[in-house]
Design a protein that fits this description.
The chain is α+β, with helices and mostly antiparallel strands. The protein is built from 17 helices and 14 strands. The strands form 5 sheets. The chain has a 5-stranded mixed sheet with strand order 1-2-10-7-3, covered by helices on one side. The longest helix has about 30 residues.
Amino acid sequence: MPLTAADRAGALADRWGINPAFFWMRGKDPEHPVQIDDYGICNVYGYQEVLQVLADHKSFSNDVAALMAGEAEIDKEFTEGALLQTDPPEHTKLRKIISKAFTPRMVAALEPRIAEVTHELLDAVDGQDGWEMVDTLTYPMPVIVISELLGVPHSDRDLFKKWVDRMASSAVALTSGNRNPEEDLDPQAAMRAIPELLDYLRGHAAERRVRPREDLLTKLVEAEIEGERLSDAAVVNFANELLVVGHATTSALLGNALLCLDSHPGEMARARADRALIPAVVEESLRYMSPIAVAYKACVARTEIAGVRVHPGQMVAVCLAAANRDGRQFERPHEFLPDRAANPHLGFGRGIHFCLGAPLARLEGKVAVEILLERFPVLRLDPDASPEFIPLPHVIATSRLPLRTR
């Protein structure tokens, strides 16, 4: 009896060593699109149900920090102006001002530099029979691009890498072992591990107000709508989000796209033959193997999702990656099909909190995959070394991805 698509997906997930909690990666469907787990967290798996949560900002807040803090005082240094933690009307105002500085035209203009950085990094492994992709390309490239975009001096690039390393290590430590998941969702915890980064960005933001330059930090401090500008804290928190979240998403996207292509050699061959297919490969990778698997919301008003009651003060886990495998929305959901007629995936979220950095991540993904296929006629996973994944409960991202080029 031939294997089903779900069977093949499960075999792939087992071979790669995917976190067992990510059941959708094994071709399995949830028993119900909304389920309350043993910790009282409401897990939303269905596509339409996820859309309901993402659209209802009156019932579901992004200010998870307030829920986790309870009666404790929240340090506004880490939350003021942070897009990921604000709700309307504050979020609407912030996004308008930031969007005036961080524009699609600015992102599109980065394409030559993204290609240049990618080639420079790959030059270091030119001629080798094999190399590790995360350390070589997927980790450093987004850090370099975003640092230069913000206006960080070249000499300080290693500082940014050190801070991102520490933040990632802190996040892993917070979510390892037998800790209660409700205690592991504090979005400020990782940021508190690197006060130097915030101090560094704060100093540069203040300096740009006095001596402007041609960079994103300057555009952020100068952006104005109806006479209102961003505070230094808001500039710093957005720059921090762009650096950390933008870097992590792009890095994960690149690694996941290579895993998808390696496991589907027919699609790899098609992309090599027609580079115009690569944007669709990137989009299908975002659906099939979503880097941001879970986003968190705080319920602030009594409501129902698919008949399941949710009450104020309850944590809601919005499972974007599971929704992207919902057979009620996607035909053949457990198959990697870049030529889908329609692909309304939720890899970057949806609605008012749709990822502002999505155009940059898409561009970096497209350019990097194009260059990899161009430079390496043979590109495959190392059969003697399995990929390794970051042990976090809300992301699907490689921490090691050994490749062979012979």
